[in-house]
Each structure stands twice: as structure tokens, then as C-alpha cells.
Design brief:
heterodimer, A: alpha+beta, 7-stranded antiparallel beta sheet, 24 strands, B: 380 residues, mainly alpha, 0% strand, flat, binds protoporphyrin IX containing FE
Chain lengths: 616, 380
């Protein structure tokens, strides 16, 4: 990076930054290396050395590539934040190395010490880059264009023009004309009359390029900070809503809640959202995807706060509802069979919808019913719900369609102590049958329970009964509050804008020098230089040439010899008149080859080597 | 939601097959062009070498003739070849290459100046006609027209944008790759990439029809969003551009090796590479295309995040697809940095461009198929 930050160092040579790529930078590195070898460097020196290393372009590149590599394991191993139970299972399944991976934080890649270290270093490096660059650029924008190089012919774009004596444009006027033209073209121009006979000008444009680059890199920091803010002050949670259910945005309202580090429950605005109706549409048209869902629509009623008027809204996938600073997303859905369980005494021990958890194709779902209120003994049921039940000849049941064509509930039942009173949290979707006695089951005398809507089954031993009353639908919603989101978006957009500007604005310098030939003609030479990539520099040179020639009424055609290789050959002395006659030029450059003196190279150097015609 | 039209879907498949057939003929024509032009160029080279005189004369004549006698990199004039060899040497030596970076007349004057060179350094069209190449391009245009019909009928058949599953990503992506190639051809003579691009497109079409064939159908709700239109189209477009630069970077490595061999007086074993511009020109053009593609990929990433926020409630969750999109973005950011870092331009940057593209391919194939994540609805 320092190679960009200190343009003054680099442009000291006549060739400018492009011409002397080896120079000071190399020394700089060498010096740094030498420094490193010196034991007497001291702590301050060491720190400075480390800082230089960290903020170097090479380190930035290295850290970037390292970041790319470090991100990969997160896609190879299950990640805790996304799916903790899969990780637990994975560790169980791989007893040999599962634990080792865990100790290497390979299940928490993106919050791991090593991943964080890489991006924190990268961003420190970034700050270390951006700040000095911004300062340097601020100075550059306020300072005058760099002094005119001695040998313009060394610049990547170079050309000459000859204004005949009759035109009456002396060298000093010519330079002013050129300055006016370049100013109009958006250049910042400084005219230098200092050495009288050969006035020159320096011009520069495209400061926006560097601004774009700085905005881009700074915005990346902005994005990172926004994400961090979201993690600190945001929260998210999940809730399952059966048709008719209402969710109120309080901590107890959530099935699952993940607060940010700095979350306070007072942040929750007590809005409510009720699921009125949920409708899923399935593909009935295409053969290949028959039964695939094509639309999910949830009709909801929302209230900003308990006293506010109710509002009807539609919640869809890709179309969240925003309420009270949060967004509510439709992330899942399924069936909730409605059951009534009576206990041994004939009382209703449980009545209502039971959320069936999706297990497989076509809403093949598992059902767990816990009835702690059943007396004298608690009851438990576990089994499956099939919206369209089919049974194979082997007795395996499956669901043939996602719609409710032939709904069926098949359950095993248990009685005993459900263990709910012990206070230990239990998963509502799992029934621990360890301490329970089976009542119904496929391999028991009583067999399993199979219910169609409207039917009732009486449990053996007078333990009670279960009825399947009907089916409701449920949706799963995710609720998120992320205060960093908007600023992340703004910074991301800024970053892209900066990136585009940085890649497509070109920073260019133009120098023009004029002089008067012995025979009275005004000689003009110009050179262009760019910083970084600029494939349109040649085009710019042609455009500027055209403007200058137009101003003085010259023929705009570029003599062949001018697109010379600007190497040593370009400094061959030759009479300026050669530009009108390439044949002459070859003769002249050959004849006068030994007459070159460095101090005279300006006017004389205008002829290229004749061979360079080929470059056209 | 528009109804599905199975007949249109069948037409579409027919068009795809026809397009693949046409591309195959175009591929042969491109290969023929490579062979023929390289032979023609070789003759010109040999003539140039002969003109440079006997080895004795060459020795006394200095570097220029010397380079000519070696059968120079390109068929340029003797002097041009020598200059080019110098440039290559300087370029390979590292930082000195920086001085050549502005693609101005200096670097534009590479090997492309002589007779017989087909793609010059700035990759503008040369005067002479290459009949096989013209035939190949014409066939490619025809293939692309049929292909376009295939993509359109697919869209009409499904009543939506034709990029909702792997089959459609591949067929539409292949079309975009050809279209981008043809559009670039208007401005630049990249016909030397023809075999590569058309070959890849044929592979994509065949893979789509054989391995990923899916009948026309509706989209799952998660994909029903205008973000699908925006996000995926930009991703496909950027990938098509990355495809071009991948080809150019690969050629750049070969060319740079060849130039080094030649500069060291070695034998030219890769005659067909005569048709290909110098390593430096390849690097410069692929940089420019990569810059555009990188901006496209940045948009892909951003729009993907915005969509993820809409659909799942979080804009970034390190889902496998997100991870790989990020990895690709960082690799190409690394590439852009490499181009501005001394000692990392040239060959190393080309390798980064290649690695980036391999990640793109990996993201598209392996990740879509074998990794489970929220994005696992590629229609398999
Ligand atoms: C978060 C990590 C970074 C990313 C994603 C990134 C990305 C990019 C991209 C895409 C570009 C090319 C576009 C442009 O010129 O504006 C670029 C250029 C640049 N970056 Fe970074 N960058 C990162 C960190 C850094 C760091 C740490 C440094 C300093 C050591 C740095 C220094 C530069 C410089 C000097 C350029 C200009 C190169 C040129 O002129 O061609 N970047 N960066």
C-alpha cells in the first residue's frame, strides 16, 4: 500500500510512478528488512516495522486469500448457529475426530478465534491503509499537479505538434491555449512560465478515482460495524401459530428466543398478530412436480399495541409483515390435527390442535400428545399424521399427497408419569417413553390406534379415549429485529458506488511544453501518464491532440513516427520537420544518432525511431 | 401465476438440441481455424527468419536479427519480435512489468503488428480474412439464435423467467455465455477463444439435457420473488464474464510459458498459440473483464443478501451457498489487489483468476447438488 500512499517518493524520477517502478519502493522494503535485522531497533521501531508490514498491500492480499480459505470449512462441517442438533449428531457419528474438530472450533467457524483473527487483522490493515491514503489524497487534491518531467517522451503517451510561424502563436500563448483546453476538459491545470523560453503546464484529473477507492474500503468497515451492531442490539425468535392463535410480542410469547448481547426486554413492543387462515396451493399441472407447493398465503390480523385498531394483512414467503420495529417471516407450515382426550374418569383432559412436525414427503409428520391432566394416570401418545394416507402391502404407511385427501392419525399410546412435574424442560415434539407403560402399539395385543377425522378410539383397560376431531393448519414464523440492517444496506450501496467509481474513473496527468524553433515555428510536445489501469489513455491522447490541433488549425493526423516506443530510441535527436515525412525521419535519426545531448532532448526528441511505424 | 404449457417445453428441448448441434459444427470450424491459421503464421515466421539472414549475419546484426532467427513469438516484423521478447522478459521479471501496464501505444504495439497475426495485442480485428473463423462465428450466431428460441420457449412454457432449477441455470447460462462472447466479438477479436467458449457451452447443454433434465414447472414459493429475476440474472451474467476471463487467464499462462521458452531460445512446441495475443495483452483484457464481472458479483452478493433478508429474515447466515459466494468474491477481490501488488501481477494474478473461476464452478455444481442448505431447491 505504501507504494500508493507516497506518490511523491515515486514520482521523483522523470518517468514518474510508471517509469520507475523499481526505485524508492524497493529501497523502502530493503530498508524495512534491514531494520528488522537490527537488534538495536527498540520497541518503537519494532512496532513501526510491524505496522508497516501489516498495512502493506502484500499483507492485505495475503489476508484476503486467507479469509477466503478460512471461510471454506464452514461449508464442509455442520455449523452450530445454523443447526445445533446436527452438530451434536455429527460429533456422535464421528467419535474418532468429531471432538477434535470441535476443539478447533470447526463447528463455529464464523465466530471462531481464528476466523475472527483474520478478519480483524484485515480490517486493522484496512484502516491502516485507508487513513494515510485519505490524508495523502487530501493533500494531493489541494496541491498543484507535479512538475513537468524533463523528458516527456518517456511517458507512455507522447506526441508533438508544430504550429507554423505564420499562425502567429508564440510559445507562451500556445501554453495558455493548451491550459484553457485542458481546464475545459476537467483537468486541474498549472501553467509554469519559469524557464521563459520553454513554458510548460502540468494538469491532472480523476481525483474521484481515489475517492471512490477510499469510499469503497471505508464502507466495508461500515458494513462490518453495522453487522456488529445488529448482533449487539438485535433479537430474533420463533413461534408456531395454529389457525386462530394469537402471538403477542413479549418474551413468553416466543417458542424460542435469541437475544443479542445487549438486548433488553423493554425493547419488545407488545404488538399482536393473529393467524386467521392459512392456505397452501400445490402444483396440479406439471407431471414432474405434481404436488410441489407453489403458494403459501397466511391471512393475519395485526395490532400495533393492545389498544390499537386491528389490521388485516397477508403474510407470504418473500413478503414479510413489519410490525413494531420487527419483521415477521413465514418460514414454515404444516398440519395440526385437533384431538380430544378423555381420561379414565371420562373427563376431558385435553382438547385442541396438536402441531405435527414435518418428517418427510407430502407432509408426512410426527405427532406427540402429552396429557398430564389425565387421571388417574397421565397419558401420552406418539405417532404420525398423514394428510393422504396410503399403506403399502408391507404395511408401511406413507403420505401420497400434501393435501388433506385422506387424513389419518396413527398413534401408539402410553400411560404413567410423563415426568413433566420435575421441572426439567422437555421437548414438546418428543415423548420419552422410558418410564411409561405402553397401552397401544403395533406389536401389542391391542394394536395401534388409527383414526380418521370424526372417529374416536377407546383406550384399553379403561384408561380413557381419544377422538380425532379435525385438522387445522399452522405456520412457523421467524421474528427478527436487526437495528444494523439499514446502515449495512446503505454502506453496501456506498461500497458498490465507490467500487464503480474507483474502477472506471481514470486518474491522468498531462504535461505540455512549448518552445520556439530557430526558424520561428512553435513546437509543442505533450505527454500523458496514468495511475494504475487505464486502457483509454491512448484515446485521451488522441482527443487532446485533436483539441490542440483544432485550436491552432492544424492537421490532426498523427505522423507515424510519433507512436514510437518511448524507450531510448525515442530520444534520438532529429529535426522536428521529420514529422511530416517519415522517410526523412529515418535518415535524420540515423545520421544524427551521436549528436544527442540530454539538455537538448526536448525539441529534438520528438522524432521516434522509424521502425516504430509498425506500432500503428 | 401463469399456466404451464408442456408443448412449449417440448419445443424448447428440441431447440436446445438443435442449438447444441449447431454449436458442435461451429466448434469444429473454430478448431479448423486454429489449425489453419497457425500453419499460415508459421510459414510467415519461417520467411521472416530466412529474411533475417544466415546465423552469421544474425550474430553480427545484434539482437534484432537474433530474435528473428529463433522464429519469434509472433509473426511480426523482426524488430517487433525482438521488442516483444524484451517486453516479455521484462514482464516476467516482475515489477518492471508495471511500467508497461498502461495499455497505451507502447504496450499495444506488441506482436500484433506483422503480417499474418490474427489477434493483435489490443485484440482489434486485423485486415485479412480468416474464412474458417468467419464460418465459425456465423455458425455460432445461428446456434445462439436457436438457443435463444429454446430459452424463450422454455420461459413461455413455464410462464416465468427461465432460471429456476439446474437445467434452466445451465441452458440459460450457456446462452448468456455465448451471447456475451458474441457481444465482445463486436469490439474485440477474441475468436481465438472460440473453441473454448463454444466447447464449454456444448458441455453445459449436454450436461443440462442428460444429467439435469427437468420438465417445465412452477417455482416453489421461496423462489417466487422479483429478486430471483435480479439476483440470478446478474449472477449468470457475471459467471459468463468469469468464463471468458478464465479462458484468457489459462491461455495467458500457456502463452507466458511459451514466450519464456522462446525468449530463452527454446523450440516452439505450441504452434497454435501463435494465434493468441501476448500474455500481457491477455492479462490486460482479462483484468478489464474481471473488473466488470467483479462489480456484477458484488451486486449478486448484495442482492442475494437483500433477498435472504426478505425470505428468511436474515441477510447473512453463512449458508453453504452464501459461504461460496463470499469465497468467490474474496478471491476476485484478491485478484484485483494482486494486480496492484508488485510481484503478484502476471502469472500469479492469472492463477487467482483461475482459482476464482474454479470456485464459481464448484459453487454451481457441487454446492448445488451435494451440500444441504437453505438454497437446496435447485430442482434436483
Ligand atoms: C476487507 C478487505 C478488502 C476488500 C474486500 C478489498 C477489495 C478491494 C477491491 C475490490 C479493490 C478494487 C477496486 C478499487 O480499486 O477500488 C481494491 C483496491 C485496492 N485495495 Fe482493497 N480490499 C480490502 C482490503 C484492503 C486493504 C487491507 C488494503 C491495504 C493494505 C487495501 C488496499 C487497496 C488498494 C491500494 C487498492 C487499489 C488498487 C488499484 O489501484 O488497483 N485493500 N480493494
Amino acid at each position: 500500500m505504501s507504494e500508493r500512499v507516497k506518490p511523491t517518493k515515486k514520482s521523483s524520477g522523470a518517468g514518474g510512478p510508471q517509469g520507475t517502478p523499481e526505485g524508492p519502493r524497493q529501497d523502502h522494503v530493503k530498508a524495512a528488512k534491514a531494520d528488522a535485522a537490527l537488534p538495536a531497533l527498540g520497541i518503537l521501531g519494532m512496532l513501526r516495522w510491524a505496522w508497516t508490514q501489516l498495512t502493506s498491500m502484500r499483507t492485505a492480499l495475503f489476508l484476503l486469500l486467507l479469509l477466503a480459505v478460512a471461510a471454506v470449512p464452514g461449508s464442509l462441517f455442520p455449523q452450530r448457529p445454523a443447526n445445533p442438533s446436527v452438530v451434536t449428531q455429527y460429533i456422535k457419528d464421528h467419535p474418532d475426530y468429531g471432538k477434535i474438530l470441535d476443539s478447533l472450533q470447526l463447528y463455529d467457524v464464523y465466530s471462531s478465534a481464528w476466523f475472527s483473527a483474520i478478519y480483524i487483522l484485515l480490517f486493522i490493515s484496512l484502516i491502516g491503509c485507508v487513513v494515510p491514503r485519505a490524508i495523502a489524497h487530501y493533500r494531493a487534491m489541494r496541491s498543484q499537479p507535479p512538475r513537468t518531467p524533463k523528458r516527456l517522451s518517456r511517458l507512455p503517451e507522447y506526441g508533438t505538434l508544430v504550429v507554423p510561424a505564420e499562425a502567429g502563436v508564440p510559445a507562451s500563448d500556445a501554453i495558455e491555449d493548451a491550459a484553457a483546453l485542458l481546464k475545459k476538459r476537467g483537468y486541474r491545470v498549472e501553467v509554469r512560465h519559469d524557464d521563459g523560453a520553454r513554458p510548460s503546464l502540468g494538469a491532472e484529473r480523476g481525483f474521484l478515482k481515489e475517492v471512490g477507492n477510499l469510499v469503497f474500503h471505508t464502507s466495508l468497515i461500515g458494513v462490518l460495524v453495522s453487522v456488529a451492531v445488529g448482533g449487539l442490539f438485535g433479537y430474533s425468535g420463533q413461534r408456531i401459530l395454529v389457525e386462530g392463535d394469537t402471538f403477542v410480542n413479549t418474551l413468553v410469547g416466543y417458542d424460542q428466543f435469541t437475544p443479542g448481547t445487549n438486548f433488553q426486554s423493554s425493547q419488545l413492543q407488545p404488538y399482536s398478530i393473529q393467524l386467521d387462515k392459512f392456505q397452501a396451493t400445490f402444483d396440479r399441472e406439471s407431471k414432474g412436480k405434481f404436488g410441489q407447493p407453489i403458494d403459501f398465503t397466511a391471512d393475519v390480523t395485526t395490532k400495533e399495541n393492545p389498544g390499537a385498531p386491528a389490521k388485516k394483512e397477508v403474510l407470504k414467503v418473500n413478503d414479510p409483515v413489519t410490525l413494531g420495529g420487527t419483521s415477521i417471516y413465514l418460514t414454515g407450515n404444516g398440519y395440526a390435527p385437533v384431538v380430544t382426550v378423555r381420561d379414565g374418569k371420562g373427563n376431558i383432559a385435553m382438547q385442541g390442535p396438536v402441531v405435527a412436525k414435518l418428517q418427510g414427503e407430502n407432509y408426512y409428520s410426527s405427532v406427540v400428545i402429552k396429557v398430564p391432566d389425565a387421571k388417574p394416570e397421565q397419558l401420552g401418545f406418539a405417532g404420525f399424521f398423514l394428510p393422504t394416507a396410503f399403506v403399502t402391502d408391507k404395511g408401511i404407511s406413507f403420505s401420497g399427497d400434501p393435501d388433506l385427501i385422506n387424513p389419518q392419525l396413527s398413534l401408539n399410546s402410553y400411560y404413567g408419569d410423563l415426568g413433566l412435574d420435575k421441572g426439567a424442560p422437555q421437548n414438546v415434539f418428543e415423548l420419552d417413553v422410558k418410564d411409561l407403560k405402553p397401552l397401544n402399539g403395533r406389536d401389542l395385543a391391542a394394536g395401534g390406534i388409527t383414526l380418521a377425522p370424526g372417529s374416536t378410539y377407546t383406550l384399553p383397560d379403561g384408561k380413557g379415549s381419544i377422538s380425532f376431531d379435525g385438522v387445522k393448519k399452522y405456520i412457523g414464523v421467524d421474528i427478527h429485529h436487526n437495528p444494523g440492517q439499514l446502515s449495512a444496506l446503505i454502506f453496501a450501496l456506498l461500497a458498490v458506488a465507490g467500487l464503480v467509481v474507483s474502477l472506471y474513473v481514470n486518474r491522468r496527468r498531462v504535461w505540455v511544453r512549448t518552445g520556439t524553433h530557430e526558424d520561428g515555428r512553435t513546437m509543442v510536445e505533450y505527454g500523458l501518464l496514468t495511475r494504475g489501469e487505464d486502457h483509454r489513455l491512448a484515446g485521451e491522447a488522441v482527443a487532446i491532440r485533436g483539441l490542440l490541433a483544432g485550436a491552432w488549425g492544424l492537421d490532426t493526423q498523427i505522423p507515424p513516427s510519433e507512436r514510437a516506443d518511448n524507450g531510448p530510441a525515442g530520444t534520438d535527436p532529429a529535426d522536428a520537420s521529420v514529422h511530416t515525412d517519415p522517410v526523412d525521419a529515418s535518415a535524420a535519426s540515423g545520421a544524427d544518432a551521436s549528436a544527442a545531448t540530454p539538455s537538448e532532448d526536448f525539441i529534438q526528441s520528438t522524432a521516434g525511431s522509424p521502425e516504430s511505424k509498425k506500432d500503428q | 401465476m401463469f399456466p404451464i404449457n408442456e408443448t412449449m417445453g417440448q419445443y424448447s428441448e428440441l431447440f436446445m438440441l438443435l442449438a447444441a448441434g449447431t454449436y458442435t459444427v461451429a466448434f469444429i470450424a473454430f478448431a479448423w481455424d486454429l489449425a489453419k491459421s497457425s500453419k499460415a503464421l508459421r510459414t510467415v515466421d519461417l520467411k521472416a527468419a530466412a529474411a533475417a539472414g544466415t546465423p552469421d549475419a544474425a550474430a553480427s546484426d545484434g539482437a534484432a536479427a537474433d530474435a528473428g532467427a529463433k522464429v519469434p513469438v509472433a509473426a511480426g516484423s523482426v524488430r517487433g519480435a525482438a521488442a516483444d521478447a524484451d517486453r516479455v522478459a521484462g514482464h516476467l521479471a516482475g515489477p518492471a512489468g508495471r511500467a508497461e501496464r498502461p495499455s497505451s501505444s507502447v504496450s499495444a504495439g506488441g506482436p500484433g503488428s506483422g503480417a499474418g497475426q490474427t489477434a493483435n495485442a489490443s485484440m482489434e480485428y486485423a485486415a485479412e480474412r480468416r474464412v474458417p473463423a468467419r464460418v465459425a462465428v456465423a455458425l455460432t450466431v445461428l446456434g445462439a439464435a436457436i438457443h435463444a428460441a429454446g430459452v424463450l420457449t422454455r420461459a413461455v412454457g413455464a410462464g416465468r423467467v427461465p432460471w429456476g432449477n439446474m437445467y434452466e441455470f445451465l441452458t440459460t447460462g450457456a446462452f448468456v455465455a455465448v451471447a456475451v462472447f458474441l457481444v465482445v466479438l463486436i469490439r474485440r477479436d477474441l475468436r481465438f477463444l472460440g473453441t473454448f467458449v463454444v466447447g464449454l457451452v456444448i458441455i453445459m447443454l449436454v450436461a443440462a439435457s442428460v444429467a439435469y433434465w427437468t420438465p417445465v414447472g412452477h417455482l416453489v414459493p421461496a423462489l417466487q420473488s422479483y429478486w430471483l429475476v435480479i439476483h440470478v440474472s446478474i449472477a449468470v451474467l457475471s459467471s459468463a464474464l468469469f468464463t471468458l476471463t478464465f479462458a484468457m487467464s489459462a491461455l495467458q499462462l500457456v502463452q507466458s510459458h511459451r514466450q519464456k521458452t522462446l525468449a530463452a531460445g527454446g523450440e516452439d512446441k505450441l504452434g497454435f498459440m501463435r494465434l493468441v495475443p501476448s500474455a500481457l495483452s491477455l492479462e490486460n483484457l482479462s483484468y478489464r473483464i474481471n473488473a466488470i464481472a467483479f462489480i456484477g458479483w458484488t451486486f449478486t452478493l448484495m442482492f442475494g443478501a437483500i433477498w435472504a433478508e426478505k425470505a428468511w429474515g436474515r441477510f447473512w447466515g453463512w449458508d453453504t451457498k452464501e459461504v461460496w459466494t463470499f469465497v468467490i468474491w474474496v478471491v476476485y477481490a484478491g485478484y484485483l489487489h494482486a494486480r496492484a501488488t508488485r510481484g503478484w501481477t502476471g502469472t500469479r494474478a492469472a492463477w487467482l483468476s483461475i482459482v476464482g473461476y474454479l470456485c464459481v464452478v464448484f459453487n454451481f455444481t457441487i454446492v448445488n447438488q451435494f451440500f444441504n442448505g437453505l438454497h437446496s431447491y435447485s430442482g434436483l
